[in-house]
Specification:
Glutaredoxin; Serine Threonine Protein Phosphatase 5, Tetratricopeptide repeat; 2 domains; alpha/beta; 48% helix
């Protein structure tokens, strides 16, 4: 398997988002979704978009209700008024549509996808496609009329939200419980931003802090494992193909560990798990091998038979 290139740290936003779970992997395995750490599955009236939550709060949601995307920030003269008006409308819309905010300074990779001619600007997104835009200041076009036209032409074609996605409050839900559900630890956002900036070390420090408080949180463990892969690959020699080297040196743990990381980068984490679990047969007492296999198991579907076999093998190597 030496035909693929190993340039895993070259800038590739889509690849890095897939590895860290911010976009779905190319195959059936599941890698952690950093954008959903500490959050509920309910849709929100107003959301601040980032690469960590764009799939859930824009792409997926726009297949159910229209999403208005406001691009701009408070440094622009018309932005505060436009944001205030849209926020008030969104608050009374009962989630027949949702408002997503994009700060072009904090999330330039999202803003540039829309290719705005000016800012601030509002886009209507339906089915993951921009169907209309509103530029404040153009004569003869009012925001309310534009929004009404968008909803009349597109909202009725969408299925709306399911009860599970609606933020309806449970009668038994206390104010403290509601606040706890709605408030995510700011370190989760900071970690996601660090990943997007390529500062994997900072993200890992934040996950270590969070895990010290919640050591059994599987989602945090998944995120830590995924970002650890990114950090190791970032620091590796990109002129060498670890998969080919591991095949050429099947008893070398170093190459097996590096090859497993590359399999994760290629959206094939189960191949990495199998690589390490196969080596564990011959070297059951290798602590580094056991620890790495334990981490990679967080990145695969726990119901997959290959993952179950690897877990059993890991348990046998650990406790025998």
């Amino acid at each position: 398997m030496s035909s693929h290139s190993h340039d895993s740290c070259s800038p590739d936003l889509e690849r890095d988002l897939r590895v860290t779970g911010q976009l779905p992997p190319a195959q059936e395995t599941t890698i952690p979704d950093l954008g959903e750490l500490g959050t509920t599955t309910a849709a929100a009236e107003i959301t601040q978009l980032s690469t960590a939550n764009i799939k859930r709060d824009l792409i997926d949601l726009s297949h159910k209700i229209p999403v208005l995307v406001l691009i701009g920030n408070s440094l622009q003269a018309r932005y505060p008024e436009l944001k205030n008006e849209l926020s008030q409308l969104a608050a009374t819309a009962q989630l027949t549509w949702s408002l997503a905010l994009v700060d072009p300074d904090r999330a330039p990779e999202i803003a540039t996808q829309f290719r705005p001619r000016q800012m601030p600007v509002v886009y209507a997104v339906v089915g993951a496609t921009s169907v209309s835009s509103f530029e404040p200041g153009l004569p003869g076009i009012e925001l309310g009329d534009w929004l009404e036209d968008v909803l009349a032409h597109h909202a009725t074609k969408l299925p709306g939200l399911s009860p599970a996605e609606s933020p309806a409050e449970s009668p038994a839900e206390s104010p403290a419980e509601k606040q706890s559900q709605q408030t995510a630890d700011p370190r989760l956002w900071q970690a996601a931003e660090a990943v997007n900036a390529g500062d994997f070390g900072e993200a890992l420090e934040l996950y270590a802090q969070l895990l010290a408080e919640n050591p059994q949180d599987r989602t945090l463990l998944q995120a830590q494992a995924a970002v650890s892969v990114l950090k190791r690959v970032q620091e590796s020699d990109r002129g060498v193909d670890p998969i080919a080297q591991s095949e050429a040196h099947p008893d070398d743990v170093k190459w097996a560990l590096l090859a497993a990381d590359v399999f994760v980068m290629l959206d094939q984490p189960l191949e990495g798990v199998e690589k390490l679990s196969g080596m564990l047969n011959a070297q059951p007492h290798n602590a580094e091998l056991r620890a790495r296999l334990r981490d990679l198991l967080f990145l695969v579907d726990p119901q997959d038979p290959r993952a179950a076999s690897a877990r059993a093998q890991l348990a046998a190597a650990t406790f025998n």
